[in-house]
Amino acid sequence: MTPIEIKSDFLSALREANHIAILTGAGVSAESGVPTFRDALTGLWAKYDPMQLATPEAFSRDPETVTRWYDQRRLNVLKCEPNPAHRALAQWQRSCAAGGRTFTLITQNVDRLHQAAGSTDVIEIHGSLIEWRCLITQRLQECRGGPFPQYPPRSDAGGLLRPNVVWFGEALPEEAARAAEHAAGFCDVFISIGTSGLVYPAAGYLHLAKSSGAVTAEINRDPTPATDVADYSMLGKAGEILPALLQALG
Ligand code: BV8
To answer: Tens digit of pLDDT for each residue in 123-134?
Structure first.
């Protein structure tokens, strides 16, 4: 593991912060074995473009293919465990709470691994793979079992079931979007972790935090459009950098 350099003035900003906001993306779950969004088409799905599958139009046109893709992802996620990045964020939230400071975790991920690691009040701005919604009753059901008996799956009411995720062209859940924007606009430090920074409005939260006077940072394996905007950039694996950051914070 390459030595991780964490700037002392960034550590000071974190120690003085009363409100910390975190945005996570698929890179935080990569070390748990969850393919990142743009890699999520390995193997069977190599011939599809995720941008074409994660849309209401694709679901209307071909509900069988779309629900098979999502259910394959759901079944994989159910086998995955939180990694050191998830655990470090859950630990950080607990220590902030103990010190009377707020720690808001906003995630684009739909795998519920933050919650499995012990994070609470997670703002899921893109929904969850584990919940599926009946198009007739709009009722949500948690799906933690094996493959659906048929594709597209149907609820007991006979309605088509769709994953409770936000597709491209769909609005974010209102309450989640409002909470995420509030956290980004009022935090002292904003850290974007494991996201390509390509999808909006999530990718705009770092800019909102910066324009609201927050110290901003990015932790990512590769450079992104946010890298030159953030005050601090740490390139590397979230599962290595986050535990080191927590250790440096003491
Ligand atoms: C909306 C759920 C409006 C489904 C996803 C400006 C403003 C508002 C909207 C837009 C806008 N411009 C364009 C839009 C439209 C669109 C959009 O952003 N398009 C992009 C492509 C240009 N946005 C929308 O449609 C949004 N809706 O705006 O609605 C509206 C309003 C009213 C009424 C109607 C409509 C909805 C967007 C949500 C789409 N759903 N996910 C699913 O999962 O299938 S988004 C999808 O991409 C992912 O789920 C994820 O949430 C998102 C971003 O992906 P990442 O998480 O960043 O993953 P990625 O693979 O890209 O990158 C991983 C990164 O991790 C890499 O950088 C890699 O280097 C790094 N990494 C890898 N391993 C590690 C690591 N880092 C650290 N450690 C490691 N080990």
So the answer is: 999 999 999 999
